[in-house]
Amino acid sequence: MHQIDEKKAPQMALQADMDFLAGLLDKVILFEGGEALLKTIQNIRSLAQKARETGDEAFYLQLKKEITDLNPPERQEVIRAFSTYLQLFNITEQNFRIKRRREYQSEDTDQVQPRSLEDGIETLRKEKVPAEMVAELLDSLSLELIITAHPTEATRRTILQIHKRIADLLKALEYANTRYEKKVIEETILNEITILWQTSEIREKKPSVLDEVKNGLYYFDNVLFDVLPRIHEDLEDYLYESYGQRFKVPSYLHFGSWIGGDRDGNPNVTADITWKTLEMQRELVLEKYKKSLTTLRELLSHSAKKISASHALLASVESEENTMPAAKLWPTKDEIYRRKLAIMIHKLECVGKSNGGYQSAEELLADLYMIRDSVNQHHPAGHPIKLLRKVIRQVELFGFHLASLDIRNHSGEHESALAEVLYNVNIAKDYKNLPENEKVAVLLKALNDPRPMISIYDTFTPETQEVINTFRMIKRAHQTFGERSIQVYLISMAHSVSDVLEVLVLAKEAGLYRVYPNGEILSEIHIAPLLETIEDLRNGAKMLETLFQMPIYRNHLKVRGNLQEVMLGYSDGSKDGGTMTANWQLYKAQKEIHEMGAKYGIKLKFFHGRGGSLGRGGGPLYSSLLSQPPVTLGDGVKITEQGEVLSSRYLLRDIAYRSLEQATSTMMCAITEQKQNEKNGKTPNEEAVRAMDKISEYALEKYQELVFRDPDFLSYFKQATPLNEIGELNIGSRPMSRKGSARFEDLRAIPWVFSWTQSRQLLPAWYAAGTGLSKYVEETGNFKLLREMYASWPFFHATINNLQMALIKAELSTAEEYTRLVKDPEVAGRIFGLIKAEYELTKEMVLKIADQKELLDYTPNIKESVRLRNPYVDPLNLFQVYLISQLRERENKDEKARHLLMEVLLTINGTAAGLRNTG
Q1: Are 624 and 593 in contact (CB under 8 A)?
Q2: Which of 123, 104, 120 is nearest to 112 (CA)?
Q3: How many Å apart are CA 530 and CA 532, to the nearest integer?
Q4: Beta-bridge mates of residue 173
Q5: Which of 266, 439, 541, 746 could bond to 498 as cystine, CB 3.0-4.6 Å?
Q6: Angstrom distance (rounded) from CA 717 to CA 520
Q7: pTM over 0.85
């Protein structure tokens, strides 16, 4: 086989599709607002395009004049138009990706798409990886993707559903054969764009946590429930084609959720809300199974007169039908599989309602296995019934819980709660202020004492009671929904050993952890510290080693399969030390912790808390995997899929499939390469590691000099970005800062990144990288090494390419407009001057290292996408600056101020759509 070179693959009419949808939107605008409105929009669009293409300042100044001369309500309609153009562009681009994938699949059989399942398996074949090693690889393959609500989706779900319908219609248009079919589809698309135009873009109120849960469930219901089994089935089939034997592919790819479980800084997430979330998840998955079994019942029409079913199946049907209501029985006696499936559907309907229902997903699986084994007795070997195989895989993947729900809370909440409990039982009068070693001694004593410290008769403050209720709820969830429903408790801002032991003590008090008199240990939950700051990343290995040396913690791990999960925070680390230093410290922390764990026989699963934006570790899923130390992939990987990523990756089945097959292919190849390197004694290039240490050190100094040591920086940030206005956007249930604080330390990384992105400065995604790289070259003169690192080291390659993406999305001529919002012109000019100089330096270094003339030369499709988007995003930025300046001048929140705010929010939504990021 060979690959088609994506760089040379023909552009599949991306511009033509965009022109088609834009033309339909123009028709809608003409109908809604008349010719004058349409001409205004077309004039602004033309000026923005000319300003971009020619670089002539006259066009730019004319564009600004056109924008500032507009008055409401026409101004609002123009903003909405540009925002809608960008929404349609996103749909077009996704359709382009789908068409490109189909093009590969329609080519000759020896041509495969890069990073497809076929490509990954072909790579294994080329490397002469034997079948037994493939089996080992499959057993070690584990990828969990965790959906989160924050920063949540700036676009309303109603709008996203319209987007999906338009995307489906575009796809249908490709297959339309007759003029009439095409005409009908085009008219339907016009109707959908009309509805889109006439639908409100802005949420009137913040979504509740349960609203966010419903948004997350949408992706399971419409996409993931079918796509995840298909990935597994296709992997099995492709391996069979290549190796001539049918491998058992384990259920390696799972989705979990934080929505309804993440209470860090969100007082709206309570134990009751988490319980309701679990109920909603179970309700959905049971309904999906009922539909799947009904479809399977239609298929398996086999007659006992024609086939011989297994004795086990026949006996189970005869036995269970005696307990069934007559109305639920299948009427045709010889249709043995339909009789069995009618029983199974009834038992599903009774789950959680009576003893006649399934008590666990394992019982449902046992029945499905029974059907499969019986079918195998009379069905041609090597040709499994795909629908039956799919339903079995669905139950293996989703259980009765649908998705494992992680629980997360701040270390300070656990400390405060335990301080109150320990005071109540006269163990520690002032636990919070004890030295770390004394805290640990108190906690170890509590863990070794089988007696509880909390009585049902005790009364606590509401905050402490809520912490206790959460742990009790987890115990009840395990009993009701199964242990897979909640498997991990995450501790944000975990700085010390006591932060971890506190959670184990609280788990003990709820019956989740217990040491029995005979020495037997019960431990029902993984405890995962979240390392967020640069300091925590540096100290992480030492903290965990201290825990691993404690017999009581080692015994807890032994019960949990000698597996320690560690979450790595990309957001706060980047905010704390800049993108270059944060990424390097994350890489080093993984290697150090993994190597340390190996000494104790402990497997490490790293959970990557990546955001959708580049300033928070974002980028393609496969790129995220490639940038990890390969040695860490074999114990399993978890990655967050944050709010704004969900619609771009998982709204459409074809796009979801492509993203997940890329991740699978990448992991297979990376793990195999790592195993072969270990076998051949290959080790990482120490010179490159030392270079990154230096680059990181220089970049950290440069970053912190501006962000933490410049007295005017915080004022500049708050004034030169739409930070305050973003707070009014109603895009999530969680507050923008912890405890409502105005301190920089308490500002969440999400609004931090979102604000810089909106102002086109994107500072968190690239700032100080140029200084780090250039200073290293100045001191060593070893530029050649950086080129070699880019060519041969996936981590450095991904880092440089992410910098390219950030730099091309940043637009300093637009960013300079935002400096006019800063009250002190001297401060604005000085700080923007520092940003601009660093931008130019970073761009220069990145292009030299990648050996390119322009940014993104290595990926022309994405480069073209950015070029086509800019003339639509630029006017929105100019509108935003002008409107914010008007809004901030008004002291009273009168009707005009409310209208101005609404227009600002429309520009924020539109810009987010154009740049494909919130936070």
Answers
A1: no
A2: 104
A3: 6
A4: none
A5: 439
A6: 56
A7: yes
Is residue 779 within a helix (H) or strand (E), and if so which, with residue range?
helix 769-780
Residue-by-residue DSSP string for 400-445: TTSSEE-EEEEHHHHHHHHHHHHHHTTS-TTGGGS-HHHHHHHHHH
The DSSP line for 438-506 is HHHHHHHHHHH--S-S--TT----HHHHHHHHHHHHHHHHHHHH-GGGS-EEEEET--SHHHHHHHHHH
Q: Can you tell me which residue has the tokens 């970053």?
A: 703
Measure CA 660 to chain center.
Answer: 12
Residue 2 has a pLDDT of 41
Catalytic residue check, 797: no
Helices (H), 300-407: 311-321, 336-349, 361-376, 386-398
Q: Which of 515, 520, 528 is nearest to 487 (CA)?
A: 528
Amino acid at 317: V
> Residues 164, 340, 410, 575: which is the catalytic one?
575
Instruction: State the 10-residue block means of pLDDT for the chain, 919 residues long.
Output: 42 78 97 96 96 95 97 95 95 89 72 90 92 94 89 70 95 93 97 96 84 93 97 96 93 96 93 98 98 98 96 96 94 97 97 92 98 96 92 98 98 98 96 98 95 92 97 97 97 97 98 91 97 92 98 96 94 85 94 96 93 56 81 89 82 94 92 75 81 97 97 96 85 55 71 92 96 98 96 92 94 96 98 98 98 94 88 97 95 86 93 71
Q: Which residue has the tokens 């080790």?
A: 683
| Secondary structure of 12-52 as H, E, C letters | CCHHHHHHHHHHHHHHHHHHHHHHHHHHHHHHHHHHHHHHH
DSSP secondary structure code for residue 143 in this structure: E
Q: At 736, is the secondary structure helix, strand, or coil? A: coil
Phi, psi angle pair for 640, to nearest 5°: -80, 140
pLDDT at 731: 59
Distance CA 151, CA 730 (A): 10
Kindly state the tokens that stand for 527: 């405890």
| Antiparallel, parallel or unpaired: β 563-569 and 526-531 | parallel
Between strands 513-515 and 521-523, the pairing is: antiparallel
Residue type at position 82 = F
Tally the C-alpha atoms within 13 A of residue 4's C-alpha that lie toward its C-beta.
Answer: 18
Residue 896 among the catalytic residues: no
* 77-115 per-residue burial string, b: 16 or more CB within 10 A, e: under 16: bbbbbbbbbbbbbbbbbbbbbbbbbeebeeeeeeebbeb
